[in-house]
């Protein structure tokens, strides 16, 4: 259950965006096929809105800020513990070496976090673009696609 929470919590905006996109697409296809073809174009407009809202959410920037704050609070304690354990094994080290270890550890942690969040941002950006492109395509050509399918089917 915890893994499900972590998956949903971390990817909540994408999951909601895909959920609403699926609802709008299926509903639009159903209504376009059984009622008016314009419903698929309307569904495309709603999908564009979902893509824009996903882009505007900035959820990952909020998460990055929270994680950065957490790391800053706990990194010094962790580095002190690492230095203490190192000194138990190899003996005392000087202040210069302590500062070097501390700055190296902080830089490495920040580099790793930035790389992780850059990868996450790119993934979400790809989804945003896909939703907006698909929604625009359906908004512009949805009616014609339904009419084309209905006329070729009979």
Can you put this structure into words, describing what you see?
- The chain has 154 residues and is mostly helical.
- The chain has one domain (2-153).
- 93% of the residues lie in helices and 0% in strands.
- The chain is built from five helices and no strands.
- It is rod-shaped.
- The two termini are 50 Å apart.
Task: Lay out the secondary structure.
Blueprint (H helix, E strand, L loop, with lengths): L1 H9 L1 H23 L3 H20 L1 H32 L4 H59 L1
Helix pairs in contact: 2-3, 2-5, 3-5, 4-5
Uncertain stretches: none
SSE pattern, N- to C-terminal: HHHHH
Major beta sheet summary:
none
How far is the N terminus from the C terminus?
A: 50 Å
Dominant shape: rod-shaped
Query: Helical element count?
Result: 5
Proportion in helices:
over 70%
Total individual domains = 1
Give a short summary of the structure.
The chain is mainly α and 154 residues long. Helices cover 93% and strands 0% of the residues. The chain has one domain (2-153).
């Amino acid at each position: 259950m915890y893994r499900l929470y972590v998956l949903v919590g971390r990817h909540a905006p994408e999951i909601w965006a895909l959920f609403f996109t699926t609802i709008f697409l299926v509903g639009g296809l159903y209504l376009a096929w059984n009622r008016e073809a314009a419903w698929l174009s309307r569904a495309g407009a709603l999908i564009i809105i979902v893509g824009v809202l996903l882009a505007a959410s900035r959820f990952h920037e909020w998460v990055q800020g929270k994680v950065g704050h957490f790391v800053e609070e706990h990194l010094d304690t962790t580095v002190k513990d690492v230095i203490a354990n190192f000194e138990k094994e190899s003996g005392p080290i000087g202040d210069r070496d302590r500062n070097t270890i501390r700055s190296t550890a902080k830089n490495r942690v920040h580099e790793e976090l930035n790389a992780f969040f850059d990868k996450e941002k790119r993934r979400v950006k790809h989804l945003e673009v896909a939703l907006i492109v698909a929604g625009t395509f359906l908004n512009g050509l949805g009616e014609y696609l339904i009419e084309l399918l209905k006329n070729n089917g009979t």
